[in-house]
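Lecture 7, part B: from sequences to assemblies.

Below are the input chains for today's worked example.
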Amino acid sequence: MKKQILFVDDEPLILQGLKRMLRGLRSEWDMTFVQSGAEALEKMVGAPFDVIVSDMRMPEMDGSQLLDTVKHRYPNMVRVVLSGHSEEEMIMKTVKSAHQFISKPCNAETLKSTISRMFALREVLTQEGLKRLVSRIESLPSLPSLYTQVVELIQSPNSSIKKIGEVISKDLAMTAKILQLVNSAFFGIPRQISNPAQAVGLLGLDTVKALVLTIGIFSKFEQKQLAHFGIETLWNHSIKTGAIAKKVADKESADKHLSDNAFMAGLLHDVGKLVLVANVPDKYEEVIETIKDQNITLNQAEQLVFGATHADVGAYLTGLWGLPDAIVEAVAFHHRPEICLSNDMIPLTFVHIADGLEHHGNGTLSMEAPILKIDYGYLQKLGWVEKIPEWLKTCAENKEEGKNDG
Amino acid sequence: MAENILIVDDEKPVRQLLEKILKKAGYHCTQAANAADARRCLEDQIFDLILSDIVMPGESGIDFIRYVSKGYPDIAAIMVTGIDNIQKADEALRAGVFGYIIKPFDEAQILISVHNALRQRQLKIENRQYLENLEKKIQERTDDLRESGKQLKEAHVKATRLLASITSIIIALDLEDKIVEWNRCAEKSFGLTRDTVIGKKLSECPIGWETEKVLREIGLCKTSGQRGTLDDVRLTQQNKKERLLGISFNPVLGVSGKIRGVLIYASDITKRRHLESQLAQALKLESIGQLAAGIAHEINTPTQYVGDNTRFLQEAFEDMDRAFKSYGQLFEAVKKNAVTDNIIQEVEKVIRETDLVYLIEEVPTAIGQTLEGVERVSKIVRSMKEFSHPGVDERTSVDINKALESTITVARNEWKYVADMKTDFDPGMPLVSCSPGELNQVFLNIIINAAHAISDVVDNGSGKKGIIKINTRSNGHSVEIRISDTGGGIPEKIQPRIFDPFFTTKQVGKGTGQGLAISHSVIVEKHGGSMGFETKMGKGTTFIIQLPVLSEGM
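Predicted structure of the full complex, as structure tokens:
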């Protein structure tokens, strides 16, 4: 079936231009063009769209009102803003309702690739219920202590961008959100950024302040503690995996960008678990019970309960939010790296290794420890198997350092 | 009341004779046989007069009288004695007696002397009282004088201090332009000390200001008796610094109402002028900044579709090229008379795949819209240039219609989401002499206000767009510009205040409250026009600007 895309813009010439420009994709995409929010909502009745691309400022109903309505009525529709406006006030309004923001004028490739990526993502997560769940997410819950720390830092007169960035990079929820904002063109800096401190710096302290304090892009974990799932354990594992991925990447002389990406991908690799735990905690408890009852792997149990794994959910979210492809890829395939076998060094490789090492090196019996191991076949193909002892040493050093830090 | 007289004599018959005479004349008498006796009497009673013998046993009469005149200065004394001696008489007179009677005496002689002595005494007392009074009065006066002297001194000190602390220049001149007052600020500003200029004519002092202008104004002030002012008088100080002074010339009137001099009061307005020009610049920048985001959007929109259409044309050309090539093959085959079904099918396939019919229909439209987009961008850029008008202070002949047109264009993004713009321009508008930059600011202010007024109504209600209408009319001498909106109108209670500086109904941070105040001053003060409004609650507001075709100052 062809993909359904709806374009909304009050300027007919823009619509005609888009129509002609995207004509080459007419065999894959079914495109509808309307001039107002009201017309857009009318078209949606009965005929669902996969993606809506809307202008921001329009008379009567503006883009943020339209996307808000869409979010509630059709949560699994992917919402993209295509706007020539650069006023912060306007952008702030869409931060919560739009998945991605493209600024006008944009070239054909950006538009095509952004939309194509969305479709590719939809293949990753086939389960409609989960798609709807993830599309609706505005923000992920942070560890309360880290959230409080960030809020305090932001309000403090002598806080620095660096400090704020440091705290954010300890929290997967805040990291994911800040990377969404900075990687999408929301603030006119569509760059592949994978360093929260750099992201905060690019956004500017004032913008971050407004985003956190007024718009509320971050939130804190308020769910009751689950019986079998420790939130702190997830954070701990995420931070350590990120750190190990970076260590290993540095050891393999990865460049700064790759090393940063490896850290972020490591930090975020289990973000899907957070999505599930925060939104459907009872079902996640069921997953854990299923593992015990049926003696199956986590992935198998998740498949049984949700019809998808936390990797799929995490990949969908990070993709939807426009995080760098390398990170999305690492999140999606951290259990099955062979899918993306590549001769280049990619974050996925380091995340897979770090995830394995972290579970292995973790003395306490983490939930996944006995289940997930490093894919030796994959490393064999890369010719890296003999490096494992070396990495374990690095990992142990890392642990030492961690202890000293504590 | 009868006067009380003390008679002192050692001979009793003399005492009794004297008493008899005096009693008959109505005086009251007391007798004493010697000085010691008499002293006791003085302690018991108050006497007006003493008649005393000189030679008595014990203290002599003269010594006694000396004692009396010291201790009882108000008692008069007469000597009644047998000694006929000039020296004695002189001594007695010097001791303070009023009369000297030589025995034997007759009655008349005694009475005359007594009467005379009492009168003299009375005079003496009155005189003394008068003197005492006088002295008291003089003392009082002296005290008063001293007090007012003190007050005067204090006032003077205060005045001097005040004059010194005033940060404005104060110079007082008499009628001959001679300097009588010169405060510290004047010393500092002109680099001339008070001592060197007091008494000199102002024109003789080396002051680096516009002397001619100042002297002319002083002359005017003296002849008319009216206050005069000069603004922006240039002063070159001794350190070569340029300052701007605002000077007022005040006539000093005497009690009679006649002019006695001129008080010059001048303040340094350099900083104020500097701030004013900064403010004007800031407001200009603010409006440009306000527009910048909107203008960017106005340019982004055509750029987007120009790009899209060009991309389409690129792809269309590739398709058409493919079709052209396939037709070429067909043409070659036709020439060689070797047309096969294969070739025809191939051509048909290409036509179908490339959607050639669509392309032929669409390409001209795409080119047309591309050109339109490019035209739109250049119009915006042209309008920006016209709007911002470098050289804002220069007066030139301005086509008001065109100025409005460019202002509407640059502000388009501010109104297009809430209102439609309707213009009705008088094609016969004469050129108006004005400063286009400032005028455009005024138009911009009113258009943006109109958009905001409509936006408030749109946000709160129907959601339907409003209308901004701009008309121009001319009657040859003046032009009229009417800008109306379909907003909520201006409430009656704020109507009188809308041209006040810093008055705003917008949220904090949304407006400086200066827009309409400055607009009003630009139209009225700088261009000699008028600016007013008509408003109806719930219907909207019309701002009306009238400008003379030949502005003042041309």
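Note for the exam: The longest strand of chain B covers residues 242-253. Keep this in mind when comparing with the next example.
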